[in-house]
Amino acid sequence: MPELPEVEVVRRGLESWVSGRTVDDVTVLHPRAVRRHLAGAADFAARMAGRRVGVAQRRGKYLWLPLGDDAEGFAVLAHLGMSGQLLVRPQEAPDEKHLRIRVRFKDSAGTELRFVDQRTFGGLSLHPTTPDGLPGVIAHIACDPLDPAFDDAAFHSALRAKRTTIKRALLDQSLISGVGNIYADEALWRARLHYDRPTGTLTRPRTAELLGHIRDVLNAALAVGGTSFDSLYVNVNGESGYFDRALDAYGREDEPCRRCGTPMRRRTWTNRSSYFCPHCQRPPRPRSR
After folding, report:
1. Do 163 and 247 lie in a common domain?
2. N or C: which terminus of the chain carries fewer CB neighbours within 10 A?
3. Distances (CA, A) of 288 to 164, 197, 284, 285
């Protein structure tokens, strides 16, 4: 699924092409694409019509468009799922095979916003916003490590209190948002930490070092448009990112570690895969009874 860099690339595209425009009409072509909007497709389209789109926002992997110029604050929350795409297209462009929602605007820019989703795991929905502008349904999501509001000291304290393993903690969106399987493996390789390292063993300097590597890998991926292993993860212009060419850990099973030359390994981990170097990222010692 898209992680922070991929979602931020889409957010920037929406900010350039959609923010500030007023919705003319919305067409829902597949009801599953608005299944999280419990009032249904007709209500979704009616409530969006005539609304001005604010500046696209993101927290971690979550993306939304604030709507309206009145006191009733609500936003369109986008769930990209496994294959969801938000594309800006000329109105005369042929429809994509898996087009689910079309949003047209009142200006004469000649472009429209399309939600395309091959596997229909994603969708759009409308939600009231909190006083700080967050859709209420994601108010529990933690800040991401690129957010200026992210509190490094609080994160370390939460890690120590959580009593779990480090990769589980990195994927816990209530602790730190935006980091998924790919970038967790990359950051842990850079930090020379095994994915099963207990969080209670991390010192404050070690946590600070790990956060530095997380930020570095997220920024590096963001600079090249994110990671795209196939044509499903694209920006609003339909272009893929290419950070997959620079991955040090993820997907490199049996290839030599770029640090020490030891063949990289893959282990099944909570219905996912973890990639690591058995020499640089030694597993934790079993605790004695």
Report:
1. yes
2. C
3. 17, 15, 12, 9
